[in-house]
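User: I'll paste a sequence; please echo it back and then give the predicted structure.

Assistant: Echoing your sequence first, then the prediction.
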Amino acid sequence: MNLRALFLTLLLAAPAAIAADAPPAAFNSNFVQTRTLPGFDAPLTSRGNMRYDKVHGFHWEITAPYHYVFEMNGQTALEELPDGTKRDLDPDQNPWLVAVEHIFISALSGDRTELMAYFDIHIEPLPEGQSVTLKPKPGAIAKAIESIHVTESAPGQPERIEIAETSGGRMDIRFTPAAP
C-alpha cells in the first residue's frame, strides 16, 4: 500500500465517529479492504487489523497478501514495509501526517468542528447506527477524494467505509470486531 492510499485510509477510517454520542475510547477490528483501480480488471484485496486507543494510538496492519504495518502515536509514525524495512516518518518531512492525526483524533473524540473544516457532512440515522457521507470541500482533499460513505453500528464503530476517488478508483473497507 503506498503512502497516498494509507493517508486516505487513515483519514477516512476515523470519520465514522462523528456522532453526537461519545465514541468509545478504543476500537479493535479486523478488516477486508477491496480496492479497484482504473485500468485494472481485478480488484486488489487485502486483510488485516486496525486498533486505536488513546494511550497507544493508531495501528493499521495488513496481514495478507503481504505484511505491512503503520503505527501513529502523538506526532510520530512508524511504517514497516513488506520487505521488513522499518522507517520512522518525520512529521516535518510528511506534513500530511500531522493533518491525518489531527483529523483522526478529532473524529474519534466526536469533534465535528475539525471535520467540518474539510468536509460537508450528511448524517442519516439507520435502524441500528447511522450512515455518514463526507464530501470534501474545495482544496487538497477534494483533488483526491470524491466522497466518503461510512456505515456504523454505533458511534465510533464503523462497519463499512466506501471511498470514491476522483481518479475513478474505489476503496471498500469492511470491519468486523476483533477479540480483545
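The CA atoms of residues 135 and 147 lie 5 Å apart. Residues 1-20 have pLDDT under 50 and may be disordered.
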